[in-house]
Design a protein that fits this description.
Elements lengths: L9 H29 L5 H34 L7 H8 L11 H35 L14
Helix pairs in contact: 1-2, 2-3, 2-4
Length: 152
Amino acid sequence: MHTANAQTSAATIYGYEILITVGAGLTFLVGYSVAACVVPRGQVQNAIGFINVSQIGSTAIACCIYQNLGVKKLEYALAGYGLSRMEIGGALGGVAASGIGANQAISTHISDAIIATIGDICIQVVVAGAITLLSGLVMKTVKIKMEMVAGG
């Protein structure tokens, strides 16, 4: 997604999204089962709580980066159009102020700035994936015994 631009095809975007979803989904889910197996039984709730906080925190950080970086990029791209910071923030959030959508030049600048912002945020995904891969390579291999404690 970091390499996406306004000319990137929808099929390519969907392919990138599938890769991100599968990779992030697997890492998000595997932590719960591994943590439950490797920490002492009395610490499982703490381990799962830590995983929850880190996952929610990373989402919150991405949202803050999107908002702050996106507004800066849009302010720069739309500097000559006399739009207020509120209108620019609304455009970033998908709310078009009167006249913004009708002006093709403004719409193009908005699209380019938002695509660039999303690309910059996806660097976070690439870095997290690289750190996860490197961490996995240096971890020792441990056989864990998983037992079913709930379900059928």
